[in-house]
Amino acid sequence: MPMTHAPIFRVTKNKLTQAIHRYMKRNHDKNHFYGWWIVTGLSFINFIIGGFCFYGSLVLFPMMIADLNWSRTQISLGFMIQMLMVGASAPLSAWSVTKFGAKATMFLGSVVGAMGLLLMPYAVSVPLFILFFGVLLGMGIAFTINIPLQTVVTFWFLKKRGLALGLVMAGTGLGGFAAPPTLNFIIELGGGDWRTAWLFMGTLMALIAVFVLFVVKNNPTELNQLPDGRASNTEDTGTQEQKTNTKNNQIYRSTTSWTLKEAIKTHQLWLLIIAIVGSQFIWQILITQGPLHLSDRGFSNYQYSLLYGAAIGFSIIGRLGGGVLNDFIEPRSVFLIALVLTFIGSVLFWVVDPESPTTMIYPLASGIAIGAALVTVPNIITNYWGKNAFAPVYGFIFPIMIFCNSIAAPLSGRFYDSDENYLKAMLVGWGLLALAMIAAFFLAPPERLEDGDRGD
Question: CB neighbours (10 Å) of residue 419?
Fold first, then answer.
């Protein structure tokens, strides 16, 4: 066959290659800060993995229970295993970030998570469900988002770190809002089979693996840039942090990085852990049992999917608002406000009614609360113990948080199977939330001899 199209193909290929090189050079040039492209890319990763593959997948639980005749305790067990795997994998994820970089870690996580999702249509028994959803997807989430993703942001931004984290984490809220109706539409296209939704999410996560390779850069030095896009002749990071402290004298920012061993010895770290666990436990109840509880309260599939998505969607306001506030006021104060809103939202969740005009207040309050809390915690860790300590310190906190919170779903399911309501689970959640408020109130910056710098 004559190669009549070969020259045309070569010309087209050369033009495409040159265009890509020009684009990469332009965006990698030190005069064009790549950090905001990083923010956009990481937000998209959160949109898919956090929004669809994590929050969105929970919408499928009622359908699976009805089709496979599983109990709420059984399906909640799979979620508990996933949470435990996310927590157990956190130290390994932190080590991988330190050793190989966030990019390589996120690529591996995307591949493993995609395998779990693509195998979910074959999860016809509880053990297989635990293996695919709990183990594989749990490891995928741990190695893709959370520590790796947030570590990238802490290296790319200093002065606008709160805003950057808020924008990145807003992707999860936006994805969680879009996931329920999108997955319901995918299921309708598949003839009402919930398995099509798992295949759809698996394909998305596989594409994220490719996306990571082309977009993610571990830190600004890879492109000869500096945090916040500063010129190369400006002060070093430590000097910049000191100036930021002086300008924003109500915010503490450590000018040096602590070691994990040093951080563990501070009581502030343990107060932070109590505050995180207490605030997250009630949220786990709202998320994992939300569609089921709303169904019990008389909401249709469409209605509870809308409310569930709205709660996650409103978290965008909390993530963005909390991120901005963290750059101007002490993050501990933002955390306290979030805990109060969490209590209000959880109470309204318990008494929600299809005919009540206050129905939408529950997802509004709880969504803003969890969004603000999630974006504030990384800022507290980085501000208190330094950016280089973020991965190891968060890697230490995360398994504890996940282990404690992982029992929320099976405990709630067990209470329901026994009492046919979630009252006992909510009482446990409210009690832990009260402890979280006390811990957050007494939370203060840690001190050590060589790092007593405050912006005052």
Answer: 11
d(CA 437, CA 453): 27
DSSP for 348-408 reads HHHH--TT-TTTTHHHHHHHHHHHHHHHHHHHHHHHHH-GGGHHHHHHHHHHHHHHHHTTH
CA atoms within 13 A on the CB side of 367: 25
User: Domain 33-227+240-442: which topology?
Assistant: Growth Hormone; Chain: A; (1.20.1250)
Domain boundaries, the chain: 33-227+240-442
Q: How far is CA 203 from CA 52, 118, 206, 209, 267, in A?
A: 11, 7, 5, 10, 44
Residue 405 tokens, joined: 């919170």
List the structure tokens of 118.
């693509």
- The neighbouring-strand residues paired with 448 are 451
Angle between helices 267-288 and 408-419 (to 10 degrees): 50
Tokens of 92: 């390994």
Over its length of 456 residues, how does the chain's per-residue pLDDT go in tens digits? 444 444 543 444 455 445 544 544 454 444 588 888 989 999 999 999 888 888 788 778 888 888 888 887 788 788 788 888 887 888 888 888 888 888 999 999 999 999 999 999 888 888 999 999 989 999 999 898 878 888 888 888 887 887 888 888 888 878 877 888 888 888 888 888 889 999 999 999 999 999 998 888 888 888 888 887 765 544 444 544 444 443 445 678 887 878 888 889 899 999 999 999 888 888 888 877 777 777 777 777 677 777 777 777 788 888 888 878 888 888 888 999 999 999 998 888 888 888 777 788 888 888 898 888 888 888 898 889 887 788 788 888 878 887 777 788 778 878 887 877 788 888 998 999 999 999 999 998 887 645 444 433
How big is the chain by its Cα radius of gyration, in Å? Answer: 23
DSSP state of 329: S
Instruction: Round to whole Å and give the CA distance between 122 and 179.
Output: 22
Give dist(CA 69, CA 289) in Å, integer.
17
| Residue 451 β-bridge partners | 448
Q: Identify whether the C-beta of residue 446 lies closer than 8 Å to the C-beta of residue 263.
A: yes
Distant-in-sequence contacts of 196-199, Cβ < 8 A, 24+ apart: 197/56, 197/57, 197/60, 198/57, 198/60, 198/117, 198/118, 198/120, 198/121, 199/117, 199/118, 199/120, 199/121
User: Which residues have CB under 8 Å from 35's CB, separation 6+?
Assistant: 156, 157, 164, 220, 225, 227, 228, 229
The pair of structure tokens assigned to 371 is: 């969004």
